[in-house]
Amino acid sequence: MSLEDTAKKIKAMEIRGAALIARSAVEALCEYxxxxxxxxxxxxxxxxxxxAELLLATRPTAVSLPNAVNIVMKGVRxxxxxxxxxxxxxxxxxxxxxxxxxxxxxIAEIGxxxxxxxxxxxxxxxxxxxxxCIIEAHRQGKVRExxxxxxxxxxQGLLTIRALNDAGIKTNFIxxxxxxxxxxxxxxxxxxxxxxxxxGAVVNKIGTSQIALAAREARTPVMVAAETFKFAPRTIxxxxxxxxERDTAEVLDRPIAAQLENVTVRxxxxxxxxxxxxxxxxxxxxxxxxxxxxxxxxxxxGWNLEDIR
Amino acid sequence: MSLEDTAKKIKAMEIRGAALIARSAVEALCEYxxxxxxxxxxxxxxxxxxxAELLLATRPTAVSLPNAVNIVMKGVRxxxxxxxxxxxxxxxxxxxxxxxxxxxxxIAEIGxxxxxxxxxxxxxxxxxxxxxCIIEAHRQGKVRExxxxxxxxxxQGLLTIRALNDAGIKTNFIxxxxxxxxxxxxxxxxxxxxxxxxxGAVVNKIGTSQIALAAREARTPVMVAAETFKFAPRTIxxxxxxxxERDTAEVLDRPIAAQLENVTVRxxxxxxxxxxxxxxxxxxxxxxxxxxxxxxxxxxxGWNLEDIR
Amino acid sequence: MSLEDTAKKIKAMEIRGAALIARSAVEALCEYxxxxxxxxxxxxxxxxxxxAELLLATRPTAVSLPNAVNIVMKGVRxxxxxxxxxxxxxxxxxxxxxxxxxxxxxIAEIGxxxxxxxxxxxxxxxxxxxxxCIIEAHRQGKVRExxxxxxxxxxQGLLTIRALNDAGIKTNFIxxxxxxxxxxxxxxxxxxxxxxxxxGAVVNKIGTSQIALAAREARTPVMVAAETFKFAPRTIxxxxxxxxERDTAEVLDRPIAAQLENVTVRxxxxxxxxxxxxxxxxxxxxxxxxxxxxxxxxxxxGWNLEDIR
Amino acid sequence: MSLEDTAKKIKAMEIRGAALIARSAVEALCEYxxxxxxxxxxxxxxxxxxxAELLLATRPTAVSLPNAVNIVMKGVRxxxxxxxxxxxxxxxxxxxxxxxxxxxxxIAEIGxxxxxxxxxxxxxxxxxxxxxCIIEAHRQGKVRExxxxxxxxxxQGLLTIRALNDAGIKTNFIxxxxxxxxxxxxxxxxxxxxxxxxxGAVVNKIGTSQIALAAREARTPVMVAAETFKFAPRTIxxxxxxxxERDTAEVLDRPIAAQLENVTVRxxxxxxxxxxxxxxxxxxxxxxxxxxxxxxxxxxxGWNLEDIR
Amino acid sequence: MSLEDTAKKIKAMEIRGAALIARSAVEALCEYxxxxxxxxxxxxxxxxxxxAELLLATRPTAVSLPNAVNIVMKGVRxxxxxxxxxxxxxxxxxxxxxxxxxxxxxIAEIGxxxxxxxxxxxxxxxxxxxxxCIIEAHRQGKVRExxxxxxxxxxQGLLTIRALNDAGIKTNFIxxxxxxxxxxxxxxxxxxxxxxxxxGAVVNKIGTSQIALAAREARTPVMVAAETFKFAPRTIxxxxxxxxERDTAEVLDRPIAAQLENVTVRxxxxxxxxxxxxxxxxxxxxxxxxxxxxxxxxxxxGWNLEDIR
Amino acid sequence: MSLEDTAKKIKAMEIRGAALIARSAVEALCEYxxxxxxxxxxxxxxxxxxxAELLLATRPTAVSLPNAVNIVMKGVRxxxxxxxxxxxxxxxxxxxxxxxxxxxxxIAEIGxxxxxxxxxxxxxxxxxxxxxCIIEAHRQGKVRExxxxxxxxxxQGLLTIRALNDAGIKTNFIxxxxxxxxxxxxxxxxxxxxxxxxxGAVVNKIGTSQIALAAREARTPVMVAAETFKFAPRTIxxxxxxxxERDTAEVLDRPIAAQLENVTVRxxxxxxxxxxxxxxxxxxxxxxxxxxxxxxxxxxxGWNLEDIR
Lengths: 309, 309, 309, 309, 309, 309
What we know:
The structure is a homohexamer.
Chain A: H1 3-11, H2 18-35, H3 41-56, H4 64-78, H5 82-113, E1 119-123, H6 128-139, E2 143-149, H7 157-166, E3 171-174, H8 179-183, E4 188-191, E5 195-196, E6 202-205, H9 208-217, E7 222-225, H10 254-259, E8 263-265, E9 270-273, E10 280-283, E11 286-288, H11 293-300
Parallel strand pairs in A: 1-2, 1-4, 2-3, 4-7, 7-10
Antiparallel strand pairs in A: 5-6, 6-9, 10-11
């Protein structure tokens, strides 16, 4: 897929889920670089930087995107010759993609161990990492049933219940507002995340913080499944996670909206769940309490404070 | 409208909102009674009881229904002659309908006084009483803006934003999951209710308890607008409010559901918000704290414990 | 049983449970009064007052005791002739005992309605009213299983599990410290009480407030079963409920205690569970929220402020 | 003591307390290894592995056991010659035992500094580390009095009050259910632990989480005294701490239980106190907040993720 | 004192404390009425209404003022002759003043019973009713010591510590910000109030809600001492309690303020403590939980909903 | 300024604020050392140690003081010759002072990024670091207005509002008791600190914990601005932060106090805000959650456990 097509599909949420976004971006950047004709080093670098910029602009809150882009660009930026710059692209891309895919499997294994016997689970949105944990636990015979939400406005819950159904897992489908109604019987809330901040807060699909609040109220533990590349280094030096507002037509059809002159549609795509509501974050490096996010960012992602603009 | 049509429409939620349900039921029962041909007293009573049963069966959790039905049936049951039985129907029906309509206006007046200056409000579902309070406060120049939710699965929020839009009120339309995201800036949550229990809990549209929980977390007060006929006498002697589950097709299209053999749709129409989350219930008799529900049931609705089966 | 024997057995907790205490006291007082020989009115009154004092002194925190004693003594105190004084004793005693027994049955009926289908329950101590609710709910096929605590130091839990076992109810027996461990799966905590104060707090067996705290933490509702004669009128005018400390040998054998010169055994028999932790108090007059305790004291027990010393 | 005897005594809780268990296991393993006759390296290793297995099987939740066993077995496993394998056993065992004993003294010193002047303390169960802190603080003149619980079902509280009594500390002995009753006057809750998980939760004697909840409710800080060998590395990769259920006869005599066919005794030995309820964990390496457990496991216990099966 | 002088002194807070305000207003109104010359009934009534208006305008949040004024004006308004109008003024005024003074004594008696033995108390602001409870408890030998706050900006705490000092009570004087620091050792927070709303919230000196929040956090009970005339009937029908902002010079000297062009002084005189933070309100009619405020307003103050404009 | 003068001014709070104290101490110590005449190495070291002691004694809770003193003394203590001892003083002093000043600027930059657009802020006391964050955010156009407290008893709030006023920031000045009244509209509480303990608690001006409690109640985040030299290493090994009580005349004029024989003034200068109430600590090394305090102490301040007495 061309760079432009990838960028467009990320923007349109046709490519969805932080891991997929990251891998697609890496792949597109890699192919774009390989496809570039004969160029001087500086021109090559500039073309690549522009491509990187194009990708980074598609989804400002998708924290995996800059991490992924940096993986490829690091080699380009440090290259002293055009040959060196070209040569590094493919290996670093493939390594990232392989690691990212392995991460999912590793998270599934670790996460499944935290799911108790005969568990009734709840999930919100359509996280591959969260679903992988649930399916692995099901394979081990530990899952009684799952409650999955609809996930307005884009109804990603449909993808989730299809995945769970195809894995043979007894699944209940509920509207987002039904979470507290069923919470008392839930043994564990299993969710994914788009970003983990330095103080362990989790940026995820709108509604997550509301459901996690209901979980805490009912003493239901909350487990977040997150590849380490979703940990957000920039929040160390103070950038607020800016919450993207998406197209209002996702929530209200334009013809209806047009009739209602006093009505504004607000469509924030994410919200922030505070670390207090979260019991454990399962990464491919192990399961950590949310307060340890800083350690992951520093020790596992290898960011120095100086690296960060 | 015929008795059968009314019953059907209540069941199908074409007639929606507890006040409307109650008034329609009273009207239908009244017209049915007047339309009955020449009958002996016992036959007349039996026909009326059957009609009452038909209506009562349409919506088990709509507490206003039995209260409304009883208003008409009390006279029928106590009547000693067929003339007396027939004569009482119209006046009691009209009185109930008039009081019920006045209640709305009175609640609007009292409720508006509890809305502070320059208020940012939130509402959930489509409560006539809650909307009346907001519109009256708007008329007094006190409303800055309102956040209204979509209200899945039947999207009653569309009715709410139309009503607010037509009243000229600046309104924001959000998905149900967005309530906590915007809660920090909300000055007051204004909601209606389907039933108030003896210990001040509020049975309302699914999602209400979740939003009220988020309100309490943010120190946002919660005001419930409720006609006194929504106070549920039977909960004194211990009947649990049974939460109705509605047609699953409201949540998931049947063709899709049919493909997903491991998936069950759960569609509870209501949830229960505990009294702890509620600051004030505005009735047409004044504004009371939720803990005073028992007083309303005993002193204003005039139920004795002996009246209740 | 003689007055002295009754007093002794109440003190020694051989007569246990507030209802039994009250009925035994009434019975003993009644028989004592009837057994008194030929006396002048003032001497008769004095003898009865002394008898009343003797009984009242046995258990200072058993609120039913003064209520019960007053039932008998009211007639004696108001009597103008010795005949009248004697005549009133038997009927008032029998009425109290009958009402007290009916209360249990009425509470069982009302309480059982508040127990949901397929319920997992927990109870603490050995309350006849609480057990009656559970057994009635079991009769209706609604009880899945019950968790009952040991109830140190006197192990009244043994009486509870015998009663539940004999009723054919699946019962789990746990140490008092195990309550929070199992709380997440409990649907309802059902307890009795020794006294209800004017602000809805509940004085019950030591440990109750600790278990109710764990219930609230886990969003498990708490239902208290209490005859109205357990509502404590004196707390209106400010008497603190004084918590009785019982014989230390209940906790630690005297020979061991004697060796430990720096060790004091503290053995409070009761603790106070605040109204905030309680969802409903089931009385024979209906189920009320704890905040309505004042209404019961005033309207159902008929205490005026002037009646209270 | 022979390996078998040690294993038996650990299982029977005659050897009690995580430090004692660990040291006894190390000692037994050491003596067993030294007592083995002339063997080939592989046979020696196999014999040692079997011995290790035997010990590990006695108490699944005693986290110090695998840590201790590994200390001895590491050398055996890495040995290239039978001489080397034999030679390492005694030194590693003695070092562990010495360190473990020093740990207690170091914890006492550090813990005592966290006990305020004129402190009223509470403790639950019989933790040597917790008692050491209290006795050291008493030596410094800072302890007013201690409340110690009975600790059903095995009454380890008796050991605690003996130890406190012999140290000359004014001690109050209460039933486990009395903790909340006295909590308001407690300045610090001082407890030990059987295991600390990676997210700072504490696995300790049943009832601990209930008492810690009451402490948090009353703003009473909670200090946990724990040698670093009690930090549980396996929870990093997701193993749930499985809570052992012990012999039901500890709770209810078998003849009585036999009569009650509907009654099951549940006897979980431990419960899990969440990190939120804990203010500080005092280790021999310093006092840390519970959220730093991961750092201890990684930096002080030297576990790599790869070391863990 | 003349009507104008009284009004001026109330406005200037030279007359302070709700009871004193009420009694002064009644006295001034009474003297004013008696001092009016020969007038027609309508002119007399008009003069009295104007006088009432003048008083009512001085302190909008002093709820006792309208209650007190109404006591005198009721007779005037209902009078059919000038003689009747004049005659009723003195007796109703004297009765109110006597009752108001007795109220204090009655509250002291009831409140003192709720103060436990050897109590460490805290108070905020300078409430005669709260101080009366404390002094009576001291007289009974139950008060160990009191913590009293400074009460910025007008330092009414000085009046409080003088009163406590003169009663021989060991008193600690702290800045308002020190309340949480000392809260852990406080057995009871004893405060007065300017108004009690229909849902049991308490309007009192700025800072009260902050200190009550700290009390709740530490499980310290909160007792409010309030004459029934401080219960606010108008809040039933929805009037918000408007919080008066007082002269900024109380907080910052004008010359300094004048130099700081970007600085605004905000000086709200009161804040609202929610019913959740309050355990008991002691009135002269008995001690009630805050949720019973409605009952006091209806049954003891005798307000009908129709009485309220 | 001479050593003695510096010490006196620190004690008298004429030199205020932890950074200023630290820099003044370093400067004074440096000048003192340079001013010492011809001395033997041991005499020089002794003189310097005495000077260090003098400074350390002025403010026991000012954690920056020992950190600062150690910076200078380290070189002195390790010096082998008098020349070496003298030579190190100036460079280490200047480096500390420069770093300390840069820290402020760095904190301002990082902190400002955490302040949202159009923010309404609150601050308590007079923290240079907190004010620097606010002014930088104001420079970026993000500050709507600030609420600043009076800060009894020494009214440091006056310094704060002067600084904010001079920076052109719209500022509201309120009494300390007013914090909760205005909290609902506050977007962020920005405070400084005197010390950060190993478990992330913050020791700051009396009243801070009370205001932070009100912030948490209203879901208002709390940001602490703290140079790393304020992190307190000694709390690792268990020293309690002792709260200094200052001169009672700050609270109550001596002549008045003298009249009140039963009144004691209590004047704690600081209180402790638990880590639970704090969302982020902004240091010059980045923004961390409070639970990471230990990492700062170990990794950034370079303390080993062995370094600490």
